Amino acid sequence: MDFDAMNAMLVNVTGEIDGFMYTYILVILLVAVGVWFSFKTKFVQIRYIKDMFTQLLEKKHVEGGKSISSFQALMVSTASRVGTGNIAGIATAIATGGPGAVFWMWLMSIIGAASAFVESTLAQIWKVRAGDGEFRGGPAYYIQQALGKRWLGIVFAIALILCFAFGFNGLQSFNMASALEYYVPDYATNGTAIALGIVLAVITAFVIFGGAKRISIITSIIVPIMAFAYIALAVWTTFSNIGEIPAVFALIFASAFDFQSIFGGFAGSVVMLGIKRGLFSNEAGMGSAPNAAATASVSHPVKQGLVQSLSVYIDTLLICTCSAMMVLIFYVQNPEAATSLNGMPLVQMAVDNAVGVGGIHFVTFAIFAFAFSSLIGNYFYAESNLRFIFGGNKAVLTVFRVLCLVVIFYGCLNSFDLAWNLADIFMGFMAIINLVTILFLGKWALRALDDYTAQRNAGKDPVFVADSVEGMPATECWHVSELEDVGPNPFTEYLGESLDADSTGLK
After folding, report:
1. 144 contacts 153 by C-beta, under 8 angstroms
2. Residue 459 lies in a domain
3. Cα separation of 367 and 365, whole Å?
4. CA torsion sign, 250 to 251 to 257 to 260?
5. Using an 8 Å Cβ cutoff, are 230 and 366 in contact?
6. Does any domain span residue 488?
7. Which residue from 99, 194, 301, 403 has the fewest beta carbons nearer than 10 Å?
8. Which of 55, 33, 51, 35 is nearest to 43 (CA)?
9. Of 338, 293, 331, 324, which Cα lies nearest the Cα of 445?
10. Nearest-CA neighbor of 117 among 186, 40, 179, 196?
């Protein structure tokens, strides 16, 4: 069997595994867990929307050169969530499943935000110190500490590294290179892709060799700028075509509730594609964002849990909706042309329809900005999990970083069909492990939420002490002895005079 035939066979086999896993296992599990935690938290993702924004302004509670704020941690997680899938992926969901996919995408973002809250709160509770004010954490860490199963944490970490560092980052660089096709039709053969690969590798090396602090600074600049610019284009498109909005929403709801078509082919229906697009764009429950959530220096785990729920909304209700509105206005105004396109060409023509050729240039810039921020966010997740397995071994870390740069360079030169399927499969394993884990550990996030609510209702700025939660598995952080890091002891009144440090073991 020659190489091309073998590659085609592997693409087909992995595609079948990918499709089965996502359609019949993951989507059902993600929805069920999201609904479960929505009710258990009394819809915290809706009740505490105001707090999601107020916590963004909180200052760092631990000093150190590598300590990062709640807002910077949000930008790292948003950098990974917001990628080319928010542009081309939404267009594909609409073209394949129908405009109703947008409604189910909206619904799943609200449900998934509850899972995002729980996993990110758990990541904060069981985070570990990495030196100079830096924290690390995520599913691998709370699997080891709270479940006591390091081997399972290692399995999760390996799946995440393969998925994000070697799968998704290769795909992001390929998407950046392919965005040049409009300008350089033969970009893959005339040296343009090689030049882009070198530039990307060099810029990425500058960031990743600078550590989490530099990553957070870069993403806290790139993510807001690209998000606001993209939103501005969508808002302009919407308001300049305000007369088409009723027809757009009519398309969405008519398609979303076309039950005859839905149940005629449910696996590929508008419901399934909308759910998949929403859940896998915002990554709620997948186990990736908690790696960023754990790095924030906050006074209470719930604060970062709420901030990460906001990241889900930013990804889906804002960025994905922007893409959807531009595409659907194009659908209404030129249905024949719109229905003949898919993916990135559909987005480009939709923007061209709205603002002219200049819009295509802007979308190309957006693709580069979104993809680069994803490169950085994805690497950050992978490095955190590599450190979980090997600790601070500098030789291993250096080799890993070089391999990541090679993948980014190579991604500009080749199609990554097989890598995409494998990355999806690894991400599927990640999600299954994480979702089952948070079902077991979710009660501790709920206890932390009760603690946060009690202090909030008492008019206090919530500060967490793990030792005050009876039965909670041991944590590395969140002990009374650390209160000097956040100022005067706020716990004397909160814990009550009957709580004696000597008798409880608080230290």
Report:
1. yes
2. no
3. 5
4. positive
5. yes
6. no
7. 403
8. 35
9. 293
10. 40
The answer for residues whose C-beta is within 8 angstroms of residue 45's C-beta and 6 or more apart is: 38, 110, 113, 114, 116, 117, 309, 312
Q: Which pTM does this prediction carry?
A: 0.80
Mean pLDDT of the residues in the chain: 78
Q: DSSP secondary structure string, 4-52?
A: HHHHHHHHHHHHHHHHHHIIIIIHHHHHHHHHHHHHHTTSHHHHTHHHH
CB 298 within 8 A of CB 304: yes
Q: What is the distance of C-alpha 196 from the center of its chain?
A: 26
Average pLDDT, integer, range 303-316: 88
For residue 218 the two structure tokens come to 């870069």
Interatomic CA distance for residues 115 and 39, integer angstroms? 11
Q: What angle do CA 381, 86, 414 make, to 5 degrees?
A: 70
Number of domains in the chain: 1
Rounded-to-integer distance, Cα 254 and Cα 276, Å: 20
CATH number at residue 200: 1.20.1740
Which domain range does residue 37 map to? Answer: 3-451
CA torsion 70-76-78-79 (nearest 10°) is 160
Radius of gyration of the chain (CA): 23
Is 502 domain-assigned?
no
Q: What is the pLDDT of residues 194-252, one digit of tens each?
A: 887 888 888 888 777 765 555 556 666 766 777 778 788 888 888 888 888 899 898 88
Q: Rounded to an integer, what distance in angstroms lies between the CA atom of residue 18 and that of residue 22?
A: 6
Q: Is residue 234 part of a domain?
A: yes
Least confident window among 138-147, 411-420, 481-490: 481-490
Label each residue of 97-158 as H, E or C.
Answer: HCCCHHHHHHHHHHHHHHHHHHHHHHHHHCCEEEECCEEECCHHHHHHHHHCCHHHHHHHHH
Return the closest-CA partner of residue 506 out of 379, 483, 487, 94: 483
Bridge partners of 164, per DSSP, are none
User: For the chain, how are helix, strand and coil distributed in percent, rounded to 5?
Assistant: 80, 0, 20
Residue 311 and residue 141 in contact, taking contact as beta carbons nearer than 8 Å: no
